[in-house]
Specification:
homohexamer, about 120 residues, mainly alpha, AhpD-like, globular
Chain lengths: ~120, ~120, ~120, ~120, ~120, ~120
Amino acid sequence: MSEEQKRIEAYQEARKKADAYYQKASPAYRAFQELAKQAFRPGALEKRVKEMIAIAISIVVKCEPCIEHHVREALQDGATEEQIVEAIEVAFEMGGGPATVQARFALEAMEHYRPRQ
Amino acid sequence: MSEEQKRIEAYQEARKKADAYYQKASPAYRAFQELAKQAFRPGALEKRVKEMIAIAISIVVKCEPCIEHHVREALQDGATEEQIVEAIEVAFEMGGGPATVQARFALEAMEHYRPRQ
Amino acid sequence: MSEEQKRIEAYQEARKKADAYYQKASPAYRAFQELAKQAFRPGALEKRVKEMIAIAISIVVKCEPCIEHHVREALQDGATEEQIVEAIEVAFEMGGGPATVQARFALEAMEHYRPRQ
Amino acid sequence: MSEEQKRIEAYQEARKKADAYYQKASPAYRAFQELAKQAFRPGALEKRVKEMIAIAISIVVKCEPCIEHHVREALQDGATEEQIVEAIEVAFEMGGGPATVQARFALEAMEHYRPRQ
Amino acid sequence: MSEEQKRIEAYQEARKKADAYYQKASPAYRAFQELAKQAFRPGALEKRVKEMIAIAISIVVKCEPCIEHHVREALQDGATEEQIVEAIEVAFEMGGGPATVQARFALEAMEHYRPRQ
Amino acid sequence: MSEEQKRIEAYQEARKKADAYYQKASPAYRAFQELAKQAFRPGALEKRVKEMIAIAISIVVKCEPCIEHHVREALQDGATEEQIVEAIEVAFEMGGGPATVQARFALEAMEHYRPRQ
């Protein structure tokens, strides 16, 4: 298993563990989860479009576990790799060089979650 | 003319003036303009979707003139206010309270550029 | 009325207007409001301490309307100006020069909301 | 030793090494250390409250070694885990999803430095 | 007097007022001032180079009063407009679109402080 | 090989891989590369000065692979370690504590790429 795959799995485990902790310990965290649910509900925009918006933001704000999560969701919701790359291109325009750095990890996440034929 | 409308017009004038200056003075600026053109070209995602991605990023990174620009473009490209609000909702999830603050100006921009019937 | 006082009032009006709009238009915004309510509930930390945490964050992330709001709340909850300045000092350490710039507006907000004797 | 514990120790070693280097090489660094000392001095706010302000800022600005340092200090100064979680909740409100991601590492730091009975 | 010139003067007044307040009220602020003095001392790099580094950072972190201050200092220390533009170009690369937005105000500051012949 | 050296090599590999991918898949990425080329061209400022500007920005925006890249370039272009440290000091002033944290990795990069005698 490559370093990148290990990192992806480490992010998933950390999320699971912290989810359990903060759901119990924090009413604000529970409210955040409702916010997340509402923000990504299918509506006038499809969920996969919302996930691609989140990918682009994640890249600009440099949140790798966010990239991992939203790339996975976008692919599961039927976004194509070509579409995700175009969302990332908007992040290039809005974030410059550091966005191209974060796009390296987005590539790893796409490879990890890419649907197998 | 309200304060907000004045601000919107001030942003447009500042952009026009600086565009002229940096296009002449800066090769890197000219390259940036090509980057911007490529990032928003219609492709696997429609241009209006890319503009909504840019709105959401603009809100999270707190760039008011960016909000003004991309709201205008999104509306011109046929995005509905309902769709733009849903893009903004992703920014709420990714940016918390400060994103809700920036969404105030996004509302002003939507009102300013909203198509008249 | 000074420029700063005008700005403070403009922030309040913008909040009021946008609140009304997004409460109606956005389920994610309504969920955010619940998050905000939970985050500032009195608990193991007093509400005024939480407001001072929010002041310091607002300074570091450069959100003036957030500064205005949380300075007002902190003073109303009984925080002293001396305590607020000490919260701002942590922002100096964590945010450097740009934090000292934002602290200028925090001072205006403190003067605006300072309890009269 | 878990991955997280290794990371915490790596942060401590990196701090120690760089401290020695920059203290010698950089007058600005030495001035920064005085700033840090002043920012966290006990005053109108207790030191542990200042450490919790720093934890919340660290989460919002995504600085893991900062989280590690200030969680350790807060616990040593007598802050309870419940209080730290409430400081983190303010970070959720001010930082949205990426703050919940950083809170995962804050949890690791709390577990690492949690006083043993 | 144009809007931009008014803004520049407002920034100067706000700095002066807050300087007086925080110098008196905050030991951490006084330590920050020593940090600032050390960071910009002439050394292996000329002061004007350090000011241009600060201009570029100010643009990327979106601090207008910082831009105003460091453009003034750089010009006073003998930096040419061509050099400042090249420093800004690095900010374009590192900051993307929002950096080009901040460069608009940098242009205003350059015009304001440009040496008259 | 130390952990830090491994990290430096991992950053180089990730860059190489992603470069190949995005150069092929993304016209916006290719435009970004032209922007990068223009931003660092020798001009009124020497290339090594531009690299030091980029180091300081990288530290403030917390982009480790950017630090690695620009420290390497600066040293290759003849910048001295003393000069780089002074650029980093401006980052301390503009970025506070989190900048001092990023400066730890800058030190590792300097050691890694330091010219051998």
